[in-house]
Amino acid sequence: MDAQKDAWEQLYSTQSRPWRGVADLSWTAVEKGEKVLDLGCGNGKSSLALLEKGCIVTGADFSESAIESCRKNIGDRARFVVADVRDLPFETDEFDAVLAVHVLEHVPEEDLALAVSEVLRIVRNGGTVYLQCFAEGDMRSEGKKEDVRNGILYRYFSEMDVELMFCCASEVNIEPIEEPTRFGTVRRRLQCVIRK
C-alpha cells in the first residue's frame, strides 16, 4: 500500500482542494453532539458538513498532505490525525459514528477484513458506520471488479460484498444509487448504514 500512499500524497500535495463542492450527508442520520470520525477525510469536505450538523469531528487520513490541508482550512474546529484504516489510533468504542466515504474501495483485498474490524472496533455498541463506496457497473469500472489508475486502487463493490464484509454487524442497510451522466454513462455507488 506504500505505492498507493505515495500516489495519494502526490495528489494532495499538488492540489489542496481536489474534491470541490459541499458534501451531501442527507443519507446519514448523524446528530448534533455526536462524536464522529470522518475516515479518509481527504481535504475535509465531509468534515465541514459534519461540523455544520453540530458533530464533534475527528478527521483521519493516511496522507500527511491531506491532513495538513484540513488543519490549514478548518483549524481547530475539528481534530485531524494521520492514520491508516488498518491500524487506527483510537480507543475501542470511542465514536458514536464513523463516516467512510470512498475509503474501503482503495484498501487492498487482503487488508479489507482488518480495515473493517478496525472500523467496527472504534464505534460504540449501537453506533453507526456510514459507508459510501463505488458499485459494480460504475462508469469508471469498464466492467472490471477493480483497477489501478494513477497509482491508486479502485474496487467496485456489490451489495453482497458489503454484507459479507460487515456480517458481524447487527444491521446492514444498503441503498444502490445510480446517477446518469450527460455522456450517457452511469455513476453507481452504494450508500450503506451499518449498525454495530
What attributes does this structure have?
196 residues, alpha/beta, 7-stranded mixed beta sheet, two-stranded antiparallel ribbon, globular
Task: Describe the 3D structure.
This protein is α/β, with parallel strands linked by helices. Helix content is 26%, strand content 32%. The protein has a 7-stranded mixed beta sheet, with helices on both faces. A two-stranded antiparallel sheet has the order 6-7. A hairpin with a 2-residue loop joins strand 6 and strand 7 (152-155). Helix 1 (2-14) packs parallel to helix 3. It is globular and about 40 Å long. The protein starts with a helix and ends with a strand. The model has no long low-confidence stretch (mean pLDDT 91).
Describe the sheet with the most strands: 7 strands, mixed
Q: Tally of extended strands?
A: 9
Helix count from the secondary structure assignment: 5
Please tell me the overall pLDDT. 91
Distance between the termini: 28 Å
Strand order of the largest sheet: 3-2-1-4-5-9-8
As a percent range, the share of helical residues equals 25-40%
Q: What is the radius of gyration computed over CA atoms, rounded to a whole number of angstroms?
A: 16 Å
Order of helices and strands: HEHEHEEHEEEHEE
* Low-confidence segments: none
Beta-strand fraction estimate: 25-35%
Shape: globular
Structural class designation: alpha/beta
